[in-house]
# Entry
Amino acid sequence: MMQAMEYRGSFAFSIIANFFDFIFGFLQYLVFFTAAQSIAGWNSDQMLVLYGVFMLVFALQFIFLYPNLVAMGDMVNSGNLDLLLTKPINAQLILSFRRISFEELGSISTALVLLGWLTVKGVIQLTLQSVALFLVSILASMLLIYCLFLLLMCLAVFLERLDNMAQLMWSMFSLCRYPVDVYPSRLRFMFFSFLPVAYIASVPAAALLGTASASQIMTGMIIALTATFATTLLWRRTIRAYTSAGG
Amino acid sequence: MIQNRISQSFNAHLATLQAHFKIIFTYRGMMLIQAVRLILLPLVLAAAWLSIEKTAENPYSDADYLLYYLLVPVILNLTDSRLVFRFPMAVRDGSLSRELLKPFPPLSGYALESIANNLIQLVYLLPFTLLAGYAISDRLQLGHLNLQLLLCMLVAIVLGGLVRMLISGSISLVGFWLEDVTTLNLILNGGIWALLGGMIVPVATFPQHIRSIAEMLPYRYMLSFPIEIVTGRLSQAQILQGFAVTIFWSLFFALIMRLIWKRGLKIYAAYGG
# Structure
């Protein structure tokens, strides 16, 4: 994903980068567990679930963000943010069904294979409730990522620079790579409310593992919807300010 | 008439001043974002390591992990190298030809630019590190620090930066053949470095067999080694050994660069570069 965000039009390399992204993410967890037995109550199998969910969420999100990323690529190259106005990025909230590319299928498949293997292994118990909770939480997660994306776009418009945003976004996702339980309680509270990072990967993973409550999932959805509403407003405001300032 | 001229001139000056402020403001914004990026992952990792089940084989205590990840952003910043992005671009768009005419090797130019960038970034990183260090000072163990250790750390940082620069340089030079070296860089410089260099896991806490491999590779010396010196657990001999390994890798990659440079330049010239 990082590769495509620094989109230069080289598809072959994005496929390879996607692949290595996955491999290195996977290795990251393996390497971590050479020196640790468990982390905040999550053992290595459960962490793999987290990783699978993390990958799945991002693979899915990538499909929806992709048209915007292409547009961004043009903007980065031309240094011209005016294209923002011609591409109705906000409208991308509506599912844009276009040809799903090979590499995107690849990412989703890999994540699903990993999660499937963990189900077979017995780490994930599929019940009606866990699946339902999982689906709702995934939806909330994707909305939240979209909000983050919009926020970073607002920042890019404000600073009139786009290049660092992709990398900043990727860095912020490192907050989601480890279970939210690792953080001290006050930080954890923040991650469940104002900076709802917990709902991006941790909570969906917990849903699959059967450790998340329905109320938690519902809260996450409410927060996601509120955030989407708020950031969309902010985005519209930013664009208006940008155009009225003579762009 | 004169009044008109004066107000015109004034407006022009004001506009220029505003433009400069805008540039500096944007630049500051970029630096701040970069600082945030450097700090985020270490923060997450520190939290992660602090919440693991402590086992007997693990030589690191909470205090060690805290100190480790406190220092990571600064070391990371100082040894970082932007070379690999600049050079292949210059090959691709032909601006390398212009650079070659200068009485100054183009790679050195980019290297210096990279170093300057890193030093400026310290303006944002050092205050944060010092403040954070102060905030958690009761949880850190710094009693063993002395001037000698600090000096060794500085030397280690310089050497680590050097070897990273040379590895980046070698990868950049592949830009003579490959249009996009970013993937190669991601793997060789990014991925493996994060895994075995001490980012995800401090090298000293690896199990023995992985640690021996990590200590032979150059990556450890770009990040883990300077910090290990500061934790005071390395003997003089081990520190000197570390320096030796770093110097070995530096020479190795310097040699590679020399070989690639000559051949690459021939190819570049052949394309009418």
About this structure: Residues 1-10, 90-99 of chain A have pLDDT under 50 and may be disordered. The beta strands of chain A are 38-39, 42-43.
